[in-house]
Protein backbone atom coordinates (compact mmCIF):
# COMPACT_ATOMS: atom_id res chain seq x y z
CA UNK A 1 0.00 0.00 0.00
CA UNK A 2 1.09 3.55 -0.62
CA UNK A 3 2.06 5.87 2.20
CA UNK A 4 3.50 9.37 2.47
CA UNK A 5 5.62 10.62 5.33
CA UNK A 6 6.36 14.27 5.91
CA UNK A 7 9.18 14.22 8.36
CA UNK A 8 8.63 17.63 9.94
CA UNK A 9 5.29 18.74 11.32
CA UNK A 10 6.51 22.33 11.78
CA UNK A 11 9.40 24.27 10.26
CA UNK A 12 10.18 27.73 11.61
CA UNK A 13 12.55 29.77 9.47
CA UNK A 14 13.65 33.37 9.19
CA UNK A 15 12.71 35.47 6.20
CA UNK A 16 15.17 35.23 3.27
CA UNK A 17 16.62 31.97 4.60
CA UNK A 18 16.49 28.77 2.51
CA UNK A 19 14.07 26.03 3.43
CA UNK A 20 13.61 22.33 2.68
CA UNK A 21 10.41 20.45 3.49
CA UNK A 22 10.95 16.72 3.43
CA UNK A 23 8.68 14.10 1.94
CA UNK A 24 9.23 10.36 1.63
CA UNK A 25 6.83 7.90 0.09
CA UNK A 26 6.37 4.17 -0.01
CA UNK A 27 4.90 2.36 -2.99
CA UNK A 28 5.46 -0.92 -4.80
CA UNK A 29 4.59 0.67 -8.14
CA UNK A 30 5.48 3.91 -9.87
CA UNK A 31 3.76 7.02 -8.62
CA UNK A 32 3.00 10.58 -9.53
CA UNK A 33 4.06 13.11 -6.90
CA UNK A 34 2.50 16.41 -5.90
CA UNK A 35 3.02 19.27 -3.48
CA UNK A 36 -0.01 21.32 -2.47
CA UNK A 37 -0.04 24.47 -0.35
CA UNK A 38 -2.80 25.65 1.97
CA UNK A 39 -2.57 29.31 2.94
CA UNK A 40 -4.43 30.42 6.08
CA UNK A 41 -8.19 30.33 5.55
CA UNK A 42 -7.84 29.17 1.95
CA UNK A 43 -8.27 25.92 0.07
CA UNK A 44 -5.39 23.75 -1.09
CA UNK A 45 -3.73 24.68 -4.35
CA UNK A 46 -1.15 22.90 -6.46
CA UNK A 47 2.43 24.05 -6.00
CA UNK A 48 4.09 21.59 -8.39
CA UNK A 49 3.97 18.00 -9.59
CA UNK A 50 6.28 15.31 -10.94
CA UNK A 51 4.95 12.99 -13.61
CA UNK A 52 8.04 11.92 -15.57
CA UNK A 53 11.19 13.28 -17.17
CA UNK A 54 13.51 15.69 -15.42
CA UNK A 55 13.69 14.91 -11.73
CA UNK A 56 13.91 18.61 -10.81
CA UNK A 57 10.50 20.21 -10.97
CA UNK A 58 9.85 23.93 -10.68
CA UNK A 59 6.60 25.29 -9.34
CA UNK A 60 4.91 28.52 -8.45
CA UNK A 61 6.29 31.15 -6.09
CA UNK A 62 9.92 30.07 -6.56
CA UNK A 63 9.51 26.57 -5.12
CA UNK A 64 11.13 23.50 -6.63
CA UNK A 65 11.26 19.82 -5.75
CA UNK A 66 13.52 16.96 -6.67
CA UNK A 67 12.34 13.42 -7.25
CA UNK A 68 14.79 10.82 -5.99
CA UNK A 69 13.66 7.35 -6.95
CA UNK A 70 16.36 5.46 -5.06
CA UNK A 71 15.56 7.29 -1.84
CA UNK A 72 11.81 7.46 -2.57
CA UNK A 73 11.84 11.13 -1.72
CA UNK A 74 10.35 14.30 -3.14
CA UNK A 75 11.69 17.15 -1.01
CA UNK A 76 10.46 20.70 -1.55
CA UNK A 77 12.93 23.59 -1.51
CA UNK A 78 13.02 27.34 -1.79
CA UNK A 79 16.30 29.30 -1.70
CA UNK A 80 14.86 32.38 0.01
CA UNK A 81 11.49 32.44 1.78
CA UNK A 82 9.12 35.34 2.34
CA UNK A 83 6.66 36.03 5.11
CA UNK A 84 3.90 35.26 2.61
CA UNK A 85 5.16 31.66 2.31
CA UNK A 86 3.77 30.94 5.77
CA UNK A 87 1.32 28.12 5.11
CA UNK A 88 0.79 24.38 5.41
CA UNK A 89 2.41 22.24 2.76
CA UNK A 90 1.16 18.79 1.78
CA UNK A 91 2.99 16.11 -0.17
CA UNK A 92 0.78 13.66 -2.08
CA UNK A 93 1.09 10.62 -4.33
CA UNK A 94 -1.10 8.79 -6.78
CA UNK A 95 -0.43 5.57 -8.66
CA UNK A 96 0.47 5.90 -12.31
CA UNK A 97 -1.01 2.48 -13.04
CA UNK A 98 -4.63 3.59 -13.09
CA UNK A 99 -5.44 4.08 -9.44
CA UNK A 100 -7.30 7.28 -8.64
CA UNK A 101 -6.87 7.42 -4.90
CA UNK A 102 -4.57 10.21 -3.73
CA UNK A 103 -2.61 9.70 -0.52
CA UNK A 104 -1.60 12.84 1.34
CA UNK A 105 1.03 13.31 3.99
CA UNK A 106 0.15 14.83 7.35
CA UNK A 107 1.42 18.24 6.29
CA UNK A 108 4.28 20.54 7.29
CA UNK A 109 3.50 23.93 8.74
CA UNK A 110 6.05 26.46 7.48
CA UNK A 111 6.29 29.52 9.67
CA UNK A 112 8.40 32.36 8.31
CA UNK A 113 9.60 34.87 10.88
CA UNK A 114 10.72 38.44 10.22
CA UNK B 1 -14.11 31.44 -13.49
CA UNK B 2 -15.73 30.17 -10.32
CA UNK B 3 -13.83 27.66 -8.25
CA UNK B 4 -15.09 24.73 -6.21
CA UNK B 5 -17.66 25.83 -3.67
CA UNK B 6 -18.81 24.01 -0.56
CA UNK B 7 -21.70 24.64 1.79
CA UNK B 8 -22.17 25.20 4.57
CA UNK B 9 -18.79 26.61 5.54
CA UNK B 10 -19.42 25.65 9.15
CA UNK B 11 -21.84 23.15 10.64
CA UNK B 12 -22.41 22.48 14.31
CA UNK B 13 -24.64 19.54 15.13
CA UNK B 14 -25.56 17.34 18.01
CA UNK B 15 -24.42 13.76 18.32
CA UNK B 16 -26.86 11.43 16.61
CA UNK B 17 -28.16 13.92 14.07
CA UNK B 18 -27.75 13.52 10.31
CA UNK B 19 -25.84 16.12 8.26
CA UNK B 20 -25.53 16.84 4.55
CA UNK B 21 -22.50 18.55 3.09
CA UNK B 22 -22.63 19.97 -0.40
CA UNK B 23 -19.97 20.39 -3.07
CA UNK B 24 -20.33 22.33 -6.30
CA UNK B 25 -17.36 21.51 -8.58
CA UNK B 26 -15.86 23.65 -11.28
CA UNK B 27 -18.15 23.66 -14.30
CA UNK B 28 -17.19 20.93 -16.77
CA UNK B 29 -15.10 18.93 -14.32
CA UNK B 30 -16.16 15.30 -14.49
CA UNK B 31 -14.07 14.01 -11.58
CA UNK B 32 -14.94 14.88 -8.00
CA UNK B 33 -13.26 13.84 -4.74
CA UNK B 34 -14.12 14.02 -1.05
CA UNK B 35 -11.53 14.14 1.74
CA UNK B 36 -11.60 14.52 5.49
CA UNK B 37 -9.01 16.60 7.32
CA UNK B 38 -8.88 16.04 11.06
CA UNK B 39 -6.92 18.29 13.40
CA UNK B 40 -3.21 17.60 13.01
CA UNK B 41 -3.82 14.96 10.38
CA UNK B 42 -3.33 14.91 6.66
CA UNK B 43 -6.14 14.56 4.20
CA UNK B 44 -7.95 11.24 4.39
CA UNK B 45 -9.35 10.12 1.05
CA UNK B 46 -13.04 9.23 1.27
CA UNK B 47 -14.46 8.71 -2.22
CA UNK B 48 -14.18 9.82 -5.83
CA UNK B 49 -16.73 10.19 -8.61
CA UNK B 50 -16.34 9.88 -12.35
CA UNK B 51 -19.51 11.52 -13.58
CA UNK B 52 -22.26 10.22 -11.31
CA UNK B 53 -20.51 6.94 -10.63
CA UNK B 54 -18.47 6.13 -7.51
CA UNK B 55 -16.67 2.86 -8.32
CA UNK B 56 -14.72 2.65 -5.06
CA UNK B 57 -16.42 3.35 -1.75
CA UNK B 58 -13.83 1.61 0.41
CA UNK B 59 -12.49 4.90 1.76
CA UNK B 60 -15.72 5.79 3.52
CA UNK B 61 -15.04 5.35 7.27
CA UNK B 62 -18.28 3.55 8.09
CA UNK B 63 -21.71 2.75 6.69
CA UNK B 64 -22.97 5.96 8.28
CA UNK B 65 -21.22 7.82 5.47
CA UNK B 66 -22.65 7.99 1.98
CA UNK B 67 -22.17 10.22 -1.04
CA UNK B 68 -23.97 10.84 -4.24
CA UNK B 69 -23.59 12.98 -7.30
CA UNK B 70 -26.39 13.91 -9.63
CA UNK B 71 -26.31 15.39 -13.10
CA UNK B 72 -22.55 15.03 -13.16
CA UNK B 73 -22.25 18.17 -11.08
CA UNK B 74 -23.24 18.78 -7.45
CA UNK B 75 -22.31 16.17 -4.88
CA UNK B 76 -23.57 15.63 -1.36
CA UNK B 77 -21.81 13.80 1.44
CA UNK B 78 -24.24 12.55 4.07
CA UNK B 79 -23.26 11.48 7.54
CA UNK B 80 -25.99 9.70 9.49
CA UNK B 81 -26.14 9.49 13.28
CA UNK B 82 -23.10 11.73 13.67
CA UNK B 83 -20.50 10.91 16.29
CA UNK B 84 -17.97 13.22 17.94
CA UNK B 85 -15.14 11.56 16.02
CA UNK B 86 -16.77 12.78 12.80
CA UNK B 87 -15.71 16.34 13.73
CA UNK B 88 -13.30 17.47 11.01
CA UNK B 89 -13.00 19.65 7.94
CA UNK B 90 -14.52 17.96 4.90
CA UNK B 91 -12.86 18.96 1.66
CA UNK B 92 -14.12 18.54 -1.86
CA UNK B 93 -11.98 18.72 -5.00
CA UNK B 94 -12.62 18.41 -8.70
CA UNK B 95 -10.55 17.87 -11.82
CA UNK B 96 -11.32 18.05 -15.53
CA UNK B 97 -11.40 14.26 -15.81
CA UNK B 98 -10.45 11.27 -13.76
CA UNK B 99 -6.73 10.77 -14.18
CA UNK B 100 -4.10 10.15 -11.56
CA UNK B 101 -1.79 12.75 -13.08
CA UNK B 102 -4.32 15.55 -12.92
CA UNK B 103 -4.22 18.46 -10.52
CA UNK B 104 -7.14 18.58 -8.13
CA UNK B 105 -8.86 21.91 -7.45
CA UNK B 106 -10.01 22.18 -3.87
CA UNK B 107 -12.90 23.96 -2.25
CA UNK B 108 -12.60 25.87 1.04
CA UNK B 109 -14.07 23.00 3.05
CA UNK B 110 -16.90 22.50 5.53
CA UNK B 111 -15.92 22.51 9.17
CA UNK B 112 -18.13 20.01 10.98
CA UNK B 113 -18.37 20.07 14.76
CA UNK B 114 -20.32 17.34 16.50
CA UNK B 115 -21.20 18.19 20.09
Describe this structure in words.
The complex is a heterodimer of chains A (114) and B (115). In chain A, strands 2, 5, 6, 10, 11 and 12 form a 6-stranded mixed sheet that branches. In chain A, 0% of the residues lie in helices and 54% in strands. The mean pLDDT of chain A is 92. In chain A, a hairpin with a 5-residue loop joins strand 5 and strand 6 (44-50). With 114 residues, chain A is mostly beta strands. Helices cover 0% and strands 46% of the residues of chain B. The interface between A and B is medium-sized, with 28 and 28 residues.
Q: What percent of residues of chain A are in strands?
A: over 45%
Described by strand count, sense and barrel closure, the largest sheet of chain A is: 6 strands, mixed
The percentage helix of chain B is: under 10%
* Quaternary structure of the protein: heterodimer
Notable features of this structure?
A: 114 residues; mainly beta; 6-stranded mixed β-sheet; 54% strand; B: 115 residues; 10 strands; 0% helix
Topology:
The complex is a heterodimer of chains A (114) and B (115).
Chain A lengths: L2 E4 L3 E5 L4 E3 L1 E4 L4 E8 L5 E7 L5 E3 L5 E5 L4 E6 L8 E9 L7 E2 L3 E6 L1
Parallel strand pairs in A: 2-12
Antiparallel strand pairs in A: 1-4, 3-9, 5-6, 5-10, 7-8, 8-9, 10-11, 10-12
Chain B lengths: L4 E3 L2 E4 L5 E6 L6 E7 L5 E8 L14 E5 L5 E5 L8 E8 L9 E2 L3 E5 L1
Parallel strand pairs in B: 2-10
Antiparallel strand pairs in B: 1-3, 3-7, 4-5, 4-8, 6-7, 8-9, 8-10
Give a brief outline of the structure:
The complex is a heterodimer of chains A (114) and B (115). With 114 residues, chain A is an all-beta fold.
